[in-house]
C-alpha cells in the first residue's frame, strides 16, 4: 500500500495510505446495491400504481431519462455533496482527494465521472483495474487525468510539523504558561489537532485553542494570532522549554 504526503497551508505534512483496490471495489459494490434498490423501488411503484405512460417515442425516452438520472449522476452528485465520497466510500472510509492537497473541484469530479465510462463500464472494468494495479497510487484513468487519488481514512495519520523537528537556539517563546501543561496534555492536543487539520475542521481547532487558553489562563483578546497558529506556537514553546530542561 503506497503513501501520499500532502503539505497543508499550515505547513503540516500529512501522510495518507492510498485506498486498496479491494476497498474501492467493495465501495463500488455498495453503491451498486444502492442503485439496484432504487431500480427495484421504481419498478415496484410503477407496478403498484399500474402506471402506463402514453406518449410519443421522444416523450417516452424523456420519461426514462428522468427516472434514470439519479443512477446516471449518482456518483458525480454524491462526490460533490459529500466532498469526495459516495455512500459506499463513506462506509468504507475512503475518499477522493487532490494529490497536491487541495480540495477537488467540480471539474475534477466531472472528469472522473466521465472517465467511468472507460474505467468501469467498458470491458467489464478491466481498463480501470489494470490502470490501478500499474499506477503509483492505485489510480484509474479518471484519477490520473485529474491529479486525484482515493485515500483511506482508517489509518492513523502521521503528521509532522517542520518547525517541531528542531527548535533554533535563538527561538523566542511567547507563552511561558505552557509549562502548566503536562506531556499527557500535549499528546492530547497533538492528537486532536492532527485530526482537525486532517479534516479541515476549524470548529474543533477553535474549541481546542479555547481550552488551551483556559488551562493556561490566557486572555484570548491579547493573543494576536489565529487559533491554528496559537496551537502551533504552544507546541513549539513546549518543545523549547522541555527540550532545554
TrEMBL record:
<dbReference type="InterPro" id="IPR010432">
    <property type="entry name" value="RDD"/>
</dbReference>
<dbReference type="GO" id="GO:0016020">
    <property type="term" value="C:membrane"/>
</dbReference>
<feature type="transmembrane region" description="Helical">
    <location>
        <begin position="58"/>
        <end position="82"/>
    </location>
</feature>
<feature type="transmembrane region" description="Helical">
    <location>
        <begin position="25"/>
        <end position="46"/>
    </location>
</feature>
<keyword id="KW-0812">Transmembrane</keyword>
<keyword id="KW-1133">Transmembrane helix</keyword>
<feature type="domain" description="RDD">
    <location>
        <begin position="18"/>
        <end position="144"/>
    </location>
</feature>
<protein>
    <submittedName>
        <fullName>RDD family</fullName>
    </submittedName>
</protein>
<keyword id="KW-0472">Membrane</keyword>
<dbReference type="Pfam" id="PF06271">
    <property type="entry name" value="RDD"/>
</dbReference>
